[in-house]
Amino acid sequence: MTxxxxxxxxxxxxxxxxxxxxxxxxxxxxxxxxxxPQTLAEACGVPIEPGWLVIADELPDGLVVAxxxxxxxxxxxxxxxxxxxxxxxxxxxxxxxVLPLRDADGRDWWACTNPYHGLQIRTxxxxxxxYLRDGTEVLVVVxxxxxxxxxxxxxxxxxxxxxxxxxRLERSRADLVSTVAHELRxxxxxxxxxxATLLAKWHRFTDDQKRVMLETVNADADxxxxxxxxxxxxxxxxxxRLEVHxxxxxxxxxxxxxxxxxxxxxxxxxxxRLEVRDGLPETWLDPDKVDQILGNxxxxxxxxxxxxxxxxxxxxxxADAVTVSVQDEGEGIAPDLASRxxxxxxxxxxxGGTGLGLYIVKGLVEAHGGTISVGRAPxxxxxxxxxxxxxxxxx
Length: 395
What we know:
By secondary structure, this protein is an alpha+beta fold.
């Protein structure tokens, strides 16, 4: 069994530290009882400002601070949740016992790093995954506080992050890579096949056959371009770098343009219907993003819905805003799925596409300060309804 290094300071190494052994007077504590968090932190030499511990409990990450003797002086609410150790049970105890961290090979991490008697030039340990006694994975960052370089450690500050959230993010990235690879393979295979065939056997094909092949290559190139555009939009939405360039926009005219484009692409013109209510406000929106929102919603209705696709543009009730709904006459979306449709990679029963379209729509609407929801259309299908403030001219 590997023995852990004992930190220096008052008390014998390896023994639990009681309230009576803490340095100095602890006002407000009964003899032999555990002092309150602020009193304990001050006694351990950890400077405390009024309300600091309350702020520590509001931190989204776990925070553990140990003094020069290795006693836990600060143990915030998130640390208690991640470790399943109540703060009252952690304060005043040996930090090695409160946080029994082990690496992926099961080795005692504290014994390997020797924080109190190891290299005196160390200032921190970068984030790394470690495991608690029950197998829970946490991401740990450690900071050494010294009076000056090559002096003993005055405080050990440990930050704990929830590894489950990181795992979900990694799975999401893996899904993204898998989806992109799948969506790129088909059009690129087609482009490669047709161009190689044309180069090798150009004189064997008629002009009509060449045209068909080149039109297919062009369509697949457009498909790749759309996918790259979607990925860039996702990146901008997630990083908060999505820019909105407001101009005076005629929303009904934009809807007509989108529906005309679908008809030109081969959809029956009578499948689309536009309803415009009176009293629309003057709207200052980003025209390109409005086209993208309407285009994605109409395409979604065509692909996953049935019957007539109806776009309704009307003034929002009680607000200087415009409301647009896109309705179809298909099976609709089950209520238990309504909360999922705007997530990345969500797809309906009819597979197809990247599953990013509705996620991007939601991001574009919210970038304008608007909201979007999905419900049941009057005709029985799905209704995507979004509202965006009328906005104001750019300064």
